[in-house]
Amino acid sequence: MNIGEWLPFSVLVPLIAAPVCALMPGRTGPWLLAFLGALTSLLIVAIALPVLWQGELSYPFGNWPPPIGIEYRIDAANGLVALLVAAVATFVLPWARIINNFEVPERQGIFYALFLLAFAGLMGITLTGDAFNVFVFLEISSLSTYALIAHGWDRRALLASFRYLIMGTVGATFVLIGIGFLYMMTGTLNMADLAERLPEVRDTTAVRAALAFIIVGLGLKLALFPLHLWLPNAYAYAPNFITVFLAATATKVALYVMLRFIFTIFGHDYSFFALPLTAVLLALAIAGMFAGSWVAMFQHNLKRMLAYSSVAQVGYMVLGIALATSAGLAAGLLHLFNHALMKGALFMALGTVFWRVGSVRIDDLSGIGREMPWTMTAFALAGLSLIGVPLTAGFVSKWYLIIAAMEAGQPWLVALIVITSLMAIYYIWRVVEAAWFTPAREARTPVSEAPLSLLVPLYVVVAANFWFGIDTRLSVGGAEAAARALLGGSP
Amino acid sequence: MSAFLTQPFTVVIIPFLGAVLIALAGDRDRLRDIIGWVTSIAFFLGVIAQVGPALEGAGREQRLWEMLPGLEIAFRIEPLGLIFALVAASLWLVATLYAQCYMKVLGYRHLGRFFACYAIALGAAAGIAFSANLLTLFIFYEVLSLSTYPLVAHSGTAAARNGARIYLGYLLATSIGLLLVGILWVWQAAGTLEFQQGGIIAGHVDPSWIPLLAGLFMFGIGKAALMPVHRWLPSAMVAPAPVSALLHAVAVVKAGVFTVLKVAVFVFGTDVLVETGAGIWISWVAAFTIVAASLIALRLEDLKARLAYSTVAQLNYIVLGAMVATPLAIIGAAMHIATHAVAKITLFFGAGAIQVAHDRKKIAELDGLGRAMPITFGAFAIGTLSIIGLPIFGGMWSKWYLVLGSMQIHQWVLVAALMASSLLNILYLLVIPIRAFFAPAAEGVPEHYSEAPWPLLVAMTITASGCVVLFFWPDPLFRLAAMLVPGGAP
Question: Is the ipTM of this complex over 0.85?
Answer without folding.
Answer: no
